[in-house]
């Protein structure tokens, strides 16, 4: 995931890039966000809210 968390983690200094990456991957797996990795150097990943949200209950 690389640099996806840098702009966010700069604003939230208490969140490590590793923890942010793990959380975003979990949210992707659970269907809350969409992650798109771009095949460029350096790696670039875009994360957005998923189109459909499911009731977690």
Automatic annotation (TrEMBL):
Signal peptide: none annotated. SUPFAM superfamilies: Winged helix' DNA-binding domain. Residues 1-57 form the HTH hxlR-type domain. This is Winged helix-turn-helix transcriptional regulator. It comes from Lentzea indica.
